């Protein structure tokens, strides 16, 4: 005799597994952990948080990194150095004009630096690390932070 309880248990398990997978893949706006490159340094610019949209980032689609930070002194200009690592290997590095992503001068206080970029479609999915250094126009380091982000392929993300 077939035991109906067994198949119902299996169905429940499958359902649980499916919802767990959906939770893992849902592009939710969770906060990303940010670390200062040098935990002991007293950076002039404090970074409060980073929001990545979508999260995970989709290869071939535009991704936005919004950094909320605060500065004690006004910043007239400078540059942003972005370094991207995959499994500890540098895969991309670029230097941008700070004033391209935010209106300069940046007055003292809180500010939001938002940078949008499309990742190439062949970007391998995985866990990446991004290191961001901000320098002022005198080449003095104002801050340096690093955070992790994941890259997915479009086909893996349902209902985006
Ligand atoms: C990023 O991930 C690595 C490896 O899992 C971990 O050691 C590191 O602390 C993470 N960095 C941040 C900023 O969370």
Automatic annotation (TrEMBL):
Residues covered by the MD-2-related lipid-recognition domain: 34-149
Tree of life domain: Eukaryota
Gene Ontology molecular function, alphabetical: sterol binding
CDD domains on file: PG-PI_TP
Pfam families noted in UniProt: E1_DerP2_DerF2 (PF02221)
GO biological process, one term: intracellular sterol transport
Cleaved signal peptide residues: 1-31
Residue ranges of coiled coil: none
InterPro entries from the UniProt entry: Ig_E-set, ML_dom, ML_PG-PI_TP, NPC2-like
KW NADP (keyword) present: no
Alphabetically ordered keywords of this record: Lipid transport, Signal, Transport
Entry similarity comment: Belongs to the NPC2 family.
Quaternary structure note: Monomer.
Record function comment: Catalyzes the intermembrane transfer of phosphatidylglycerol and phosphatidylinositol.
Protein name as it appears in the record: MD-2-related lipid-recognition domain-containing protein
Organism annotation: Linum tenue
